[in-house]
Amino acid sequence: MFAREVATIRKLFDSRFDTRGRSIQLVNNKRPDLPAEATVAHLAQVLEGIGKIIDRDEDIVLVHITTHGSEQHQLVFIQGITRLADLEPPAFRQMLDVAGIKIACW
Fold it and tell me: What is the pLDDT of residues 21-80, one digit of tens each?
């Protein structure tokens, strides 16, 4: 369900914003043909890597996360029937800060 949504968003951005080859997908699914596992740790690693290669004053980083949320306003990551570590907003903000990715609000 979510893997299809992520793929659709990626295709949309590839066609409208020429992001082909500059997108990263993390998906929780046991199929070996799908991207790397979506976990809080993997997300932090990806953001750190992106922070090292972007022009922090010119580039835009879009993070699209699709998952279930908890009653405590956390993003819930699940692999099969196993619930992985949740992502809380302050932890996500810290990941962006560590990576040097600025936050823009419109």
Answer: 888 888 776 666 665 677 788 889 999 999 999 999 999 898 888 777 777 777 777 666
Burial call 23-51: b when 16+ CB within 10 Å, e when fewer? beebbbeeeeeebeebbbebbbebbeebb
Which amino acid type is present at position 55?
D
73 Cβ contact list (under 8 Å, min separation 6): 88, 89
Instruction: Dig out the tokens for 104 from the structure.
Output: 């823009």
84 phi-psi bin (left φ>0, alpha ψ -120 to 50, beta other): beta
Domain boundaries, the chain: 2-99
